[in-house]
């Protein structure tokens, strides 16, 4: 059997569009696999799309009603034996640092009905993990895997927004993040961004105004300005000021953007925050669901030379924070009834046992049940952060 490092080397040497073929041939040689398939999660995170050359591809599989979907949801290998065929299907999560990309399905000979051995499962999961890292890198140089995610065509505004995101989930020992945008194929203004270092997590949540390309361009300008300031090592107040000036300089107050800027200190859980007319924050602590009240300041770009003052609070191990945009609160039922705070609190409570990566999709599903099948009047965003905290040293 090849050493694990050999697989990574072959993947790095392969052309970006060929990396799955490298994994496929490796698994076929090592384990005499009868079939190897890659399924990518679509933008709604409700379907698993087969990776094949478009338009010649097979129908997608549902995340919630399929064997590959069980591996995707649980983030663990899931085996399905077929005694009649003398085979076992092994479904393995393909994820990077908590960001769920899809599932790799491998069909192996199983004439004795013993299932896949532990060593085989471990090697297959190692191959899936190596593939996941290469998929992220390959996205810079090939459209193959991004195309496979599309159950339908993205609007141009949605294309711009999804390309701007850092991912849909991220995990570190101190925290887990998960986020989702809706309608996934026609999002235009809402967005989020994050970045971590040894001791800090920077998180921004944006609730853009306007529709279509105009909203997407505004959000792109804001996120780029915030990243530029953050990467220059500026304070949270100066990050807000630079983004505010960039937007005001471009639009003279005719367009502006509501945002939350947060800086978490990983060793202590202390949080520095600026509320620039932002999405609201909910906290789940000890089974209690409550809103965090903040001093609302001017949205970014509304006025010239706005001075932003940070506030602070502290997160404790076990806390869950949820950041929810106006598109959730303002959603109307077919009868014109708004989605109430009580209904939202109930939805937050009902998802308390789910991991952070699955919470946004579950809350937005409840919202869609309220809104019905009609078109959304506004886009919606939910971001969930589970805080574990850093164990005390010594």
From TrEMBL:
Alphabetical list of Pfam families matching this protein: SpoIIE
Q: Which SMART domains match?
A: PP2C_SIG
Per the record's keyword annotation, is Hydrolase included, yes or no?
Answer: yes
Query: Does Hydrolase count among this protein's keywords?
Result: yes
- Keywords, alphabetical: Hydrolase
Among the GO molecular function terms of this UniProt record, one is:
phosphatase activity
PPM-type phosphatase domain residues are 174-387
Q: Where is the signal peptide?
A: none
UniProt cross-references to InterPro entries, sorted A to Z = Bact_Sigma-Reg (IPR052016), PPM-type-like_dom_sf (IPR036457), PPM-type_phosphatase-like_dom (IPR001932)
Protein name stated in the entry: Putative magnesium or manganese-dependent protein phosphatase
